[in-house]
Fold these 4 entries.
Entry 1:
Amino acid sequence: MTTEKPADRNCMERRPYCRLFLPTHGSLGLSSGEVATAAGLRRLGTFLSLGHERGGELLVEAEQVFHPLAGFIKNNDLLDKSIRFSSVRQTMITIKQFLTAAGLKVPHSRIKLVRHTDHMSRSMRQIIADGIFDRYQAEQHEHIAPFKNCDVILTFIATEGKLAEFHGAYRVFGSREFQNDDFLNLPDYLMIGHEDGKRRIWYHLEELSDFRPLRGRLIAKWSNPLKWHISKDQELYELKAPGRVMSFPGYQDVVLSLKELRAICRSPDSHADWVTALKFTAGIYRIVDMESGKTYIGSAYGKKGLWSRLCDYAATGHGGNKVLMGLDYENFQWSIVRTLSGVISKADVIHIEYLEKKKHGTRAVGLDYN
């Protein structure tokens, strides 16, 4: 593939550009740092006229990016790609633009963006893992009424800094008063929110399933994290590779089902943040049998640390532990108790594991027999 002639400085000053970052694993069909020509990109199904290449980045005219993306999406080509976008000057690719190209047929003025964050005693990861996210989102303060005057909300979960990952697109069918029946089976950590005595309303929301394949993959860069529901469009920061389950939430917030654990270990390229955080980190982990309530405490050490040990469980369910064999692994939930230096000795890790077993009482009432 030949190299495109760099654009001159005057051209760069006159025209707005977008950066298209080449993924290191070459998911666009190009080698890392390789410069793509317009002809080469046509062979990949897009029709861009490149401005110039600099430091492994392709700078293309922003206006030319959006329309080829629409073609990409319609042909399902983009669902196999991993792309990071970044704005230069005044021009960017936005969330509403992208999802409109993906088939969302709603005027931009009738779309709101929502960014949920951890707050007080609630964890968004726990709410999602507990299967009550839709219920949580439907309940809102009456005096705020965040989803009024819109037809669709695009929901995101805050990750790090100003970034947030796409969770889903929801059609808004209006609202009603909050009723006593709505309290049934509401977890304690959500009941706490009602102690303020403020009136609530319940929104009728229906997820648009066509956009679920983008869950956890579409990353937005929020202009003002203090505003959690906005009509203003936001920058599309990145489209992650397919097979991604979730961003690494931090060691203390790791809560994984067997299904989630297997999906993460099966697609390490799509979960590079998990690999980076766990591969060279020793630690103590916890497995809870959600049916019996019994707990198993284990440890991970050595060159591949927690990543390798958790992936052992993803492969077999029991990770080679005889005491776990024969149980229903689908009922297991994995979390991290504490992290340790990757260079700590095996003897020290095992000693700390023993102390954690005593703290948790797993040798008396749990699944630890040693």
Entry 2:
Amino acid sequence: MKTAVLGKASPLAVSAVGLGCMGMVSAYPPIPEKKDMVRFAREAFEKGETFFDTAEVYGPYTSEEILGEALADVQDQVQIATKFGFDIQNGVSVGLDSRPETIRKAVDGSLRRLKTDHIDLLYQHRADPGVPVEAVAETVSRLMEEGKVLHWGMSEVSVRTIRKAHALLPLTAVQNEYSLWYRDVENRLLPVLEELGIGLVCFCPLGRGYLTGSLKQADFSSQDVRRGCLVSPMSRPCAPIRDCWTFCRGRQRKRAAPWRSWRLPGSCPAARGSSRSREQQSCAGWWKTWALPISRLLRKNCRRSIRSWQKSRSTARGITPSRKAWWRNSSQSPAKRIKAKAGATSGQGDRWIWTFFKT
């Protein structure tokens, strides 16, 4: 397994493919047995994945317990990232909470469940508007001085917060969603991370499975995070995905190969798996988080394929950014046609279409 380095001021070397552990205990039902997930995490390690991403709120707590049991005897060979930032009462998250005492409580609990004496990468899971970033950075800094935390990062925060936090205590990584169909991070986040020398951990790089072409279901349970997503692309891969597969077919015969060619240098992925088959697919590119540096641009061939498809498709349908208001409101809009065909709720088709066509 190749390695990648997150961050410059406070670098952390991790495996180029990581395993995200939220799907082991939540979000993608049916949820497997705990013993199966212990075996699953261990097999991932044996296949070369040494970067594991979890959080106290996953379960809550059970995701960390799984990793603690699976990796207890190989702690010196892996890097584990976990997160704080939620108020958990009676096994339920009831809101955000990043007060210093809550951070300490969360870290002590994570250390106990992970069966380790330090956390390789500690994230603030979500920014708490009630607690200034200065207080969070100071608390994490003291935990570093005590040896309980080696590196720290933030998840889904604004550019302004990133700059402020990094100035107080250098960030190693920022976690954010990034895939071929969710590219908002390219507008502001990526340039800032490159400027500051901060790594990017991308979650859902394959669009929660939609971009693999393997997802066949047309409906999900109420506990599934994909329930509100548009389902029309599942049974047939859309044009840019087919183009990427065609481009990469001669190089790698894995269904997720296009995203290996599309990834950035200098960031790190955390796969979200919940079965042995998913763990095997994870090593091939399914449920991936790429840990790569953020200095190079996207690979030109795949990017050109996506852009040419966007341009030709939007021109054919009369969709341009300047005419956005027209097609969103028109009864003949492609968004409404797709929405009607897929049975999506009001507005979801529009959001999906605009995400795909914007450049």
Entry 3:
Amino acid sequence: PITVTGLANGTAYTFSATATNSVGASSASSASSSVIPLTVPGAPTAVSGVSGNTQAVVSFTAPTSNGGATITSYTVTATPPDGGAAVTAAGSASPITVTGLTNGTTYTFSATATNSVGTSSASSASSSVIPVTVPGAPTAVSGVSVNTRTVVQTNYLSANRIFSGVQAVSNADLLQTNLASVSRTGASYSGNRYFLAENPRNPADLSRLTNGSFGELGGSSNDYVLPNQVTLTFVLKLGSTITSIRTFAGWRDTGRDGQAYTVQYSVVSDPTNFITLAAITRYNPDESNFPIINNDGQTNPNTMVELTSSSGPLAVNVAAIRFVFGNYDTNTNAFENGGTGYREIDVIGSTGATTVIAGNSQATLTFTAPSDNGGAS
């Protein structure tokens, strides 16, 4: 056979042949039947995608060359970047919807064209597209009526350094088990430099300022502090529910056992905005009615203030809790010796699931976040 080149695909041709010898050329043969040169189409161009819910609508421009034969179909391929399984879809024209994609996964798209001869090479890949949809609905939604929560303050005076009935050390004390960081602002002396257990005997204990058991007051001046004009902020690792707060105070001799402070907290959704939980009523008992003799022959009263809620927890979704200690001078609070010797702070509660808490003319609604974010934050 003889190959004739330079023909135009898609154009009909007939062919005739002549024979030539030394004398000359023969007459032409009869014409052949019509023949149309064909090939596969060119590749589509300008491929782009628009994301949807587990799908994408892919548009493209048809190739300028159909290879001489009508293009019968197009195929779009969605490829994830991590080597996962590709997803394909076919259609007769642009656009083509590719379904079965995973929300939140990045895909690029390419397209091919097919005619009676075969399939073109793939187009250049599109820009990345991420299928998304709205998130799933929150669950476990609940609420309570307003004005149902009251912070209850209970005051205790002890003849001993151990308060009977205090809770044992456990995961309930968030400042022992769930503390991320702690900071102090305010005055830098008058005992304040010893706060946060900065004495070498107990350097890791940031809230229980004693070498004794939970709720047991120490017997040394190194086991208490005078946080006058000081603010202490305890940042928790996880959003927590607080059910009660206990503060212990006392001294080796008379005085410095009266308590007065403000408690504030912030929530996970707004961790830097602190809300006042309670400004406790000043508790300063008369030690003359409580003659306790310690090893030095001096009276040794100890106090505990406990905060609880009249209904439900004190606070939920807590990111941080803050204690604001004022200036305990004799004109303002009439505390003995100009200050209170705080020995221990306990914040009792739990992490994880929270419940609803009511406030003044409002209710805080809590819920469980949906497991499906729809592919977007």
Entry 4:
Amino acid sequence: MHTRTIKRYVALLVTVSGMAALTMNATALSKLVTGSLAESGQSYLAANTGTVPALEVKGTAAFYNGVNINLTSTTNSAGYSSFAGYAREGGMMWLSGGTVNSIFGTGLGVTTHSSGSFYNVTIIGGGQAVRVLGTSSVLLEECSITSDNGSGVYLEYSSTGILRNVDIRSGGYGIYGRYENTTVSAENVSVVTTGNGVSGIYLTPSSNASLLNVSIRTEGDNGMGVHARHTSTITMTDGVIATVGANSHGVYTSANGAVVLDRVTVSVAGDGAHGVFANNGRVSGSNVILTASGSGANAIQTGSGERDSGVNSAVSFYHGALTVTGDLIVNGTAHNTVVLLDHVQVFHGGNVATNAGIGTLSMTMVGMELSGGITGSGSSSTTVSLDDSRLFGDITANDDAALTVNLDNASELTGKIDPVDLSV
């Protein structure tokens, strides 16, 4: 005679208030915490009713401290009920170890003046993996983050994200800071995105990111390694940016956004993919190693496709090296563009510079060895200033374009000049 034991778990909402501390090994359907609760052990919370998250920490008196807690949501809903873990209205959620998985929605949500601290947690979202908004903050350390269709880490409305030793794999944006005053601090973080039209890190507007030893790789067309938009600033030190795909640029700035690079390697591979694209934005770099390969792939591209009133494009590099199959510098329709290259090694397959349309381009080259032509076309205006530099190539402009060359500190110029105002 065989004996079979059947365990049946009943749909259950557990509400905890006041002070509590316990160890659980059973499975509750979901849990609402409004007081203080500490749990440890292989605990399992799941939500599939379509009305509540697996774990909800709600209110300024709510504090949840969980060790090796596993949260799962199978709710297919656009609302917060699809969150596996959710802290809101001043709640605090601490998790160490365990897995958080929302099959269709957001893995972890921290909203409305709440905070979350997550250590060594695997976080998975069918949409966004981590969502932080409403002047909230999150600390992610030693975490693995995977999002299928949304952002790996999404922040908005004056929220803060601190990431240390984190691995992000995303079908959408890796890290997305949206709306005003979002702050991102990332150290020893790896970001890989696999969708078209997404960025490894994207900030807009008036937000800031500080990146130290961060590696970013995007796989897909029309993507960006990093994108700073609308007065946002991204500062990156000792990092790597790699993009693979057509029109996928390494560094992109627009509408007065800014990116600052120090000891960063940028590699782009794809037709029309540029190492740097300043679309009425600013990029500065020190000791940057940049390579761009593909048809029409340029080192520095500028444009005015997205323009705030009075905004100019500016790109500067100090030391480092630029290696491209296309042109070194191309100014499309940007107005009042300024480019400075100071003691940078350059290797390129096209022109030193091309200025087309109606744009104004001012270039200063200090301590440079340049081989290739400079071309002005349309009604563009180009000024080239060589300081202790040598340019081996032709300088040409059509009848409607203006082109001026200034030579200082024993600079040398060879090749055809037609027609150019030359000042020595």
